[in-house]
Amino acid sequence: MSLTTADPATILVRGGQVVDGTGAPRPADVVVAGTRISAVIDRDGADGPSVAPPEPGGTASVVDARGCLVLPGLIDLHTHVFAPGTGLGVAPDTVGVDQAVTTVVDAGSTGARDFARFREDVVAPARTRVLSWLNIAEPGLVDGLSELADLSAVATPATAQLLASQIAEDAGDRIVRGIKVRMSSSVTRGTGTAGLARALELADAHGLPVMVHVGNEPPTLVEVAAMLRPGDVITHAFHGKAGGLFDDAGYLHRGVVRARERGVLFDVGHGSASLSFETVEHAIAEDFAPQLASTDLHAGNLDGPVHHLAMTMTKMLAVGLPLSDIVRATTSAAADVISETGRLGSLAPGATADVSLLRIVERRVTLVDAEGATRDTDHVLEPVGAVVAGRPVTEAVVSR
What we know:
7-stranded parallel beta sheet; 400 residues; Urease, subunit C, domain 1; 2 domains
C-alpha cells in the first residue's frame, strides 16, 4: 500500500514495529490523515524504505517510532478517574495519555446523581478519551463502597432516564457505554444478586453490556456468570480468592466454561486485590486465558502493584500470554465491548487515529501480583507516547 496525494498525511508514525493483535510485530509506518488512519505501509525490513518525510513547508508531523512497538490506541476498560468526586479517583491523563493509553473507561465511580459533574470536571478537560460504565446505584462510589446495600438507590428512574438520554446521543458523543455493578459481600451487604438482576434488566432495555466486579463471596463467580449475557464482562475474574474460577480440586467450574461459550467475557481487572499470577497461569493451562486485560487503576494502587496498563500487559507477557493476544485484549477486543468495533482499537484505514507507542526494555525485573507473589522477567513494556484522534501526545515528534 502506498500514500496517495488524494489523502495527504498530517502525521507519519515512522520507523516502528507495528503490532495490531493479528500477528507478530512487523516493520511498518502508520499514516494519519486528519483524525483517521489513512494507511499502514510495510517496510522492507526493520531499516528498509519508509514513508517519505513531509515536504518542506508542509503541515505533516513525523513521530519518531524507532525502537518502539506501534499499537492501535490502547483502551483501559476498568479505571477510576472521578478524582473530584471520590477518594479513589485519579486524573484520567495520569493513567491515560501520560502512559500511552488513548481511552480510559471509568468503571462505576459515578452513578446518575453525579454524572453531570463527572462529564464537566473529568471528561471535558481530559486529553485522554474518557468513557463510562455507569454505576447501577445512583450515588456510585461517591458516598462509600457499599452502594448496593440500599436497594432503593439501585436502578432508579433517574438512572433509567440518564441511560435513555445517553443512548439518544450520537455514537461518538456518548460517554456511557455500559452499566457497572459490584458483586462481592462487602458491597451487597446481604442483598445478594438483586442489584445485578436490576442492572441486567436496564441493560436489556437500553442495549448495553454490563461489567460485573467479583470479589469476596457471596455471591460466587459461578453464580454471577450464570446470570450474564453475551458481551457482558466479569472483571477481577483471575483473583486468587475463594469462589473463583476453579473448584476445590483445581478444575474450572463448568458454569464459567458455559458462560464463556455463550459469549461472556473474562477480564483481568488487576486492582489492589484481584490479580493472582497462579490463577492466570492455571487458567492459561486450561485454555481459559484472559480475553481482556484492564487495570482497575485508582489512587490506592497507582504506586503499586498496578502502576499503569503497560505494566499489566508486562505481567500477562511474563505468565505466558503471547504479545499479539495481549495487544488484542487491550485494543480491538476492548473496543468491541464498548461498541467501537473498527473505530477504536484498530489501525485499519478509516479507524480513529489513535496510536500507542510502547518500548520493550530488556532488563531483569521482579513483578508483583495483587497477592504479593512474584515473577521475574527480562522483558518490560514501557509507555513512550500516543496519538489521540490525530493529535500527537508525545515528545517523539521530530519535525513539522
